[in-house]
Every structure is written in structure tokens, then in C-alpha cells.
């Protein structure tokens, strides 16, 4: 049942995507804007035919291949259903429910009969042409049933609508909390559809009756907008402030890696009101944190209602809709005040809970830095890749291959999949390739939160599923480049490596620590340092800065990885006496300062300041130590690697 409702929620997103166009046309044509009545009438042409639009969109969403025959069947179905019901009882008005019912049935009938075969003399009516025919027959039967029975659910819905719409602060508060709590299972679209497009009626000056909070607000209903206004402070200020809290709570050496991603999803929420990319960053890490978010949404809704604020949107509660509908709203500036206060509350509460509960929000994960670096390579926010073909290949591989996917759909921000064997899914790899989160539903279903580019990724994945998921050339070239870096460029000449500090050079065997002396972490050498600043011995980049600042990982331009571990057992100092001067993923050149150390303090609190310099990813290469004894910082000819 949950999966069925989720399919409805997913399918609703296609027709809902038409609302911004409708809202824009309605507003632009009004007297306070361009004063062109036919433009407003054109926009209302969408809003007054939502049942038809929903039937078409949902039918396409339910159809296994999104074929236009399903859309036509949905349109036929809603016309037959509404026409038959109207002939039986003119008092019945199913609203968007007629479109939802017709769309679901048309989509299911398409899946069942789109390839049906008939005898040759009836073959013209076979296959996809049969779908609108069978849909109309089924809807005739349903119109007879609903024509006599829908009056009872209509009374229940009317009573429910009246309670919610007239319950004041309680009604808007409960709606706000439930709206957020339903997001994890994707059912918030179903509830929103009732509030936005069905509850409440308003008669315009022209005598036209419109239904639903959005439609009524855009057409001037003085009672509409209370169930929409409270979302603006949350989406424009609250959740961006949560992103700021996550950035502030991130580990210092990971701030640069996650800052771009958090900034992008915060701007998306502020401008457009699309918040799922933010919510999925903490939704499953801490149910408590998400519950707080839901409750704060309810608080915002109640505050807006108590201050008699009415505002609305055509798509979502971002700056675009806030500005577009500002002039027809009531007390809209107060939403900015509420937003600033709410933003401060979000920041304080989120930062406190993240630190107090040690939540693994972005930048606080336990994965090593290679994980962060790799995510940037393949297109995680902060990286540069927008190659959906390459990303589709990676996602399909992480999902266990095309043969492991029974169905693939998507909604605003997430892939919705039915898997053959969910145990084959590599969640770590999906997150590495850019997924914000992974959610398991039921026994076979999986949702992968991608972001607002999900449609392009899903289309690329479908193409690859049909054609075979052959590795794209860039992926092959990348592997070849890595192989070349691993074997032909993985060497250091006498000038490729310089002394990172003045001090005594010694072989690893002389280090008073068995782990290093026996080369358990890799070959290299050691330095008994004299200076307080360690500089880069190579040209390359920083790949890891340890949280305790006592060690740093570097990578040469040829792919050799080097660990500089300052002192022995210095991890116990928890950063005391160390100051990092670079960040992860930062390019470096020979001589660039890396870490500043208070040697006197460290000597007094650690067993030794002897610093192993280890090559951690050698395969067939050998480290040759050319010099020993006291050497100056920046001196060449210390080692070679061949």
C-alpha cells in the first residue's frame, strides 16, 4: 500500500510542475501587474482544469514507459468519469480526485493492455489503441458507482476540510508538522494535493468557482494563503541556516570540501523552495533533528497565522514566488522578520544538537579524505562534472547493474527504484558519486536522493539500461590515466623531493616505534626535526589533514601518496601544539608551509618528535635513501623512488 501511494506521489510531480506557469500567467495579467485580462484567463485555464492535467500526468507516471497512449487514456478516463457522474448527480464535485482516479486506472490499464493482440479483423484496435477504449469502459462503470456513492466520501472530505480550514492555529500547525513528517516516505505530495487544489471554495467576480488554497489565493480569496505563508520562513531562512550550522560544525579540514555543496543546496531552497536536498542530509542521521525541523515548521505556520499573514506560491515557498506574489499578499514583510528569528533558532538548535550528539552531518563523517576527494571527481557538489552519461554509468554500477533494476522512476529530487536484489546495492559508492542519501522502502524498493537534476540522470540511466551499461570513453580513459600514473609516472627523482624541515635524517629502522620501524605503514625514512614549520617536499596536493593536526597526507603529481607523521604518539595531544596551514585538496608546491609545531611543548608531552615520512601506496616501486645525518630544509637528493 505504501509503495502504491508513493507511486501516486511521484506521478503528481509531473502535473504539479505546470503550476509555476499558471501562477506566473495569473499574476502577470492582473491589474497591479500588466493589466492584461486574457493573460490571467490563460493562467486560470490551467488552474480550472487541474483534474484533466492530473489525469494525464498521473497516467504517464504510472505507465511503465511514460507513453503518450497512457496520457490519452487518462484524458479520456476523466472526461467519461466526470460526464457520467454529472448526469447522475450534479451536486457531486470530485475535484482533483477524479483526475487522480482516472490517471491511476489509465496508467495501470496501459501496463496491462498496451501490447494486447486481437484477431486480424480487429487488429487495428489492438495494442496501445485499445488502452483508451478499455479505460473509457472501466470509467463508465466507475461513474455509475461514484455517481451514487461518492456523496459519502465527499461529505467526509468536506467535514475534514472545514475542520482544517477553520481550526485556526491548530489546523495550520498540524498541517505544517505533517507536511514535513511525510517527506521521508514521499507522501507529502498526496496531502499537499488535497490542501492546495481541493480544500475550500471561492467564487470569483466573474462567477467562476475555484477550489484549493493555491487557486483561491491567486484569484483573490481573502481567506486563502494561511496554509502557504508559514513555509516561506522555513524554506528561505530556516533550512539555509541549518546548512550554515552544518558548515560551522564540520571538521576544519573538511569545510572547503562541503562548503560548496551546502551553499548550493541552501541557495536552491532560498530561491526556489526546493528543500529535499537539505532535509536528506540529516533526515536519517538523526530522527530527533528531523523532528525538530518538523516542529519548527509547525511553529512557523502558527506564527504566520497569528500575525494574520497571507501569502502564496505557484510552485514552492522560495524568493521567486515570494517576490512574484508580494503585492497580493497580506502583511508579507512580517515573513522576513519571522524568517530571521527562525533562522537564528535553526542555527543554534542544529549546531548544538550536531555537536552534542556528534551527528555525522556533511563534513563530520568518519570516512577518510579519499572519499571526499573522489566525490568531487565524479560530480558531487563541489566538483565540476555535469556529465550525466558518466554519472549514469556509475550509478547503475553501484546499484548492481541494469539487470538488478526492475523499475526506475523519479520525482522532484529522488530516484525511485524497485530492485531485484537490494543487497547488491553499494550505498557507499552511491554517496561517493553524488547521492545525498539512500532510503529503503519495503522489501525491494529503494529511493536515492540526487537533487533537482534527477530527471537528467534518470533519463541517462534509462538509455543505458536499454542499450547496455558499457563504460563511457571518459571512464576508460580515466582508468588508463590512473594506470599510467600508477606505473609510468610513479617515481621521484633527486629533485622531485626536498627536505620538509631541517634536522637529522635516519632510516626507518632507527625509529623508536615498531609500527614505523617494521614498515607496517609503508617504506620511507624519518627526520628528527629542528625547525617549527614543516613545508611541502613535493609538488602536488594535500589529500588529508588529520583532525588532531599531527599528520598530513600529500600526493605527488604522479600519484604517489606521502604521509608526514610529526612525532610519535602525538595523536594523544589532540592538536595541542600543532597549527595546520593548509586544507584538504589544496594544491601545493615544494617549500609551501604545511604545519607549524611548538617543538618544545611536543617534546615535553610526547615520547619523541622524530617524524616518519612514509610512502603509503607503493606497489612495485622502491624507496632509495641517498643521504643521512643533518640536512637543511629544502635540500635535494635525499631520496629517489623507482
TrEMBL record:
Name the CDD domains on file: PTS_IIB_glc
Q: What is its EC number?
A: 2.7.1.193
Q: One Pfam family, short name please?
A: PTS_EIIA_1
Which keywords belong to this entry?
A: Cell membrane, Kinase, Membrane, Phosphotransferase system, Sugar transport, Transferase, Transmembrane, Transmembrane helix, Transport
Q: What class of enzyme is it?
A: transferase
Q: Which residues form the signal peptide?
A: none
One Gene Ontology MF term: protein-N(pi)-phosphohistidine--N-acetyl-D-glucosamine phosphotransferase activity
- Know the name of this protein? N-acetylglucosamine-specific PTS transporter subunit IIBC
Amino acid at each position: 500500500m505504501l509503495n502504491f501511494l508513493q507511486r501516486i506521489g511521484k506521478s503528481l510531480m509531473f502535473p504539479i510542475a505546470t503550476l509555476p506557469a499558471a501562477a506566473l500567467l495569473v499574476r502577470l495579467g492582473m491589474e497591479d501587474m500588466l493589466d492584461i485580462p486574457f493573460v490571467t484567463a490563460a493562467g486560470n485555464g490551467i488552474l480550472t482544469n487541474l483534474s484533466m492535467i492530473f489525469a494525464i500526468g498521473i497516467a504517464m507516471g504510472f505507465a511503465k514507459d511514460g507513453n503518450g497512449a497512457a496520457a490519452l487514456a487518462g484524458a479520456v478516463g476523466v472526461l467519461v468519469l466526470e460526464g457520467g457522474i454529472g448526469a447522475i448527480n450534479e451536486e457531486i464535485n470530485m475535484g482533483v480526485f477524479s483526475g487522480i482516479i482516472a490517471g491511476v486506472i489509465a496508467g495501470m490499464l496501459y501496463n496491462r493492455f498496451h501490447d494486447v493482440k486481437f484477431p486480424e479483423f480487429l487488429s487495428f484496435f489492438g495494442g496501445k489503441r485499445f488502452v483508451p477504449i478499455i479505460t473509457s469502459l472501466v470509467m463508465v462503470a466507475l461513474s455509475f458507482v461514484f455517481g451514487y456513492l461518492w456523496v459519502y466520501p465527499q461529505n467526509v472530505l468536506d467535514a475534514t476540510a472545514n475542520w482544517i480550514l477553520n481550526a485556526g492555529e491548530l489546523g495550520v500547525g498540524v498541517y505544517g508538522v505533517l507536511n514535513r513528517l511525510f517527506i521521508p516516505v514521499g507522501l507529502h505530495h498526496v496531502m499537499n494535493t488535497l490542501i492546495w487544489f481541493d480544500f475550500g471554495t471561492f467564487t470569483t467576480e466573474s462567477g467562476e468557482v475555484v477550489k484549493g488554497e493555491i487557486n483561491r489565493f491567486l484569484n483573490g480569496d481573502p481567506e486563502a494563503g494561511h496554509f502557504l505563508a508559514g513555509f516561506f520562513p522555513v524554506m528561505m531562512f530556516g533550512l539555509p541556516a541549518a546548512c550554515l550550522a552544518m558548515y560551522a560544525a564540520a571538521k576544519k579540514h573538511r569545510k572547503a570540501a562541503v562548503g560548496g555543496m551546502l551553499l548550493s543546496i541552501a541557495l536552491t531552497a532560498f530561491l526556489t523552495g526546493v528543500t529535499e536536498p537539505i532535509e536528506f542530509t540529516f533526515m536519517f542521521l538523526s530522527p530527533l533533528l528531523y523532528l525538530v525541523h518538523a516542529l519548527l515548521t509547525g511553529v512557523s505556520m502558527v506564527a504566520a497565522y497569528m500575525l494574520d499573514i497571507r501569502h502564496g506560491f505557484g510552485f514552492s515557498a522560495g524568493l521567486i514566488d515570494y517576490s512574484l506574489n508580494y503585492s497580493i499578499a497580506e502583511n508579507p514583510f512580517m515573513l522576513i522578520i519571522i524568517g530571521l528569528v527562525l533562522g537564528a533558532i535553526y542555527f543554534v538548535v542544529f549546531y548544538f544538537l550536531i555537536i552534542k550528539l556528534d551527528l555525522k552531518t556533511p563534513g563530520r563523517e568518519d570516512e577518510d579524505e579519499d572519499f571526499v576527494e573522489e566525490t568531487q571527481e565524479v560530480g558531487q557538489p563541489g566538483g565540476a562534472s555535469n556529465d550525466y552519461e558518466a554519472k549514469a554509468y556509475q550509478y547503475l554500477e553501484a546499484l548492481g547493474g541494469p539487470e538488478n533494476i526492475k523499475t526506475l522512476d523519479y520525482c522532484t529530487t529522488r530516484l525511485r527504484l524497485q530492485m531485484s536484489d537490494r543487497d547488491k546495492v553499494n550505498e557507499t559508492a552511491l554517496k561517493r558519486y553524488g547521492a545525498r542519501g539512500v532510503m529503503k522502502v519495503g522489501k525491494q524498493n529503494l529511493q536515492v536522493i540526487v537533487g533537482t537534476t534527477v530527471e537528467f540522470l534518470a533519463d541517462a540511466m534509462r538509455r543505458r539500461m536499454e542499450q547496455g551499461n558499457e563504460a563511457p570513453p571518459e571512464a576508460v580513459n580515466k582508468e588508463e590515466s590512473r594506470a599510467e600514473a600508477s606505473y609510468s609516472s610513479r617515481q621521484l627523482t633527486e629533485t622531485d623531493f626536498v627536505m620538509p624541515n631541517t634536522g637529522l635524517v635516519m632510516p626507518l629502522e632507527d625509529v623508536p616505534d615498531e609500527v614505523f620501524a617494521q614498515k607496517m605503514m609503508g617504506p620511507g625514512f624519518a627526520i628528527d626535526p629542528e625547525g617549527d614549520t614543516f613545508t611541502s617536499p613535493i609538488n602536488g596536493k594535500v589529500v588529508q589533514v588529520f583532525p588532531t593536526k599531527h599528520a598530513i597526507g600529500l600526493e605527488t603529481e604522479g600519484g604517489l601518496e606521502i604521509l608526514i607523521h610529526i612525532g610519535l604518539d602525538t595523536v594523544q595531544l589532540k592538536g595541542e601544539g600543532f597549527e595546520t596551514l593548509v586544507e584538504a585538496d589544496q594544491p601545493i608546491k615544494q617549500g609551501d608551509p604545511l604545519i607549524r609545531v611548538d617543538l618544545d611543548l611536543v617534546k615535553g608531552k610526547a615520547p619523541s618528535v622524530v617524524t616518519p615520512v612514509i610512502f603509503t601506496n607503493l606497489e612495485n616501486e622502491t624507496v632509495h635513501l641517498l643521504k643521512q645525518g643533518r640536512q637543511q630544509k629544502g635540500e635535494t637528493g635525499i631520496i629517489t623512488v623507482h
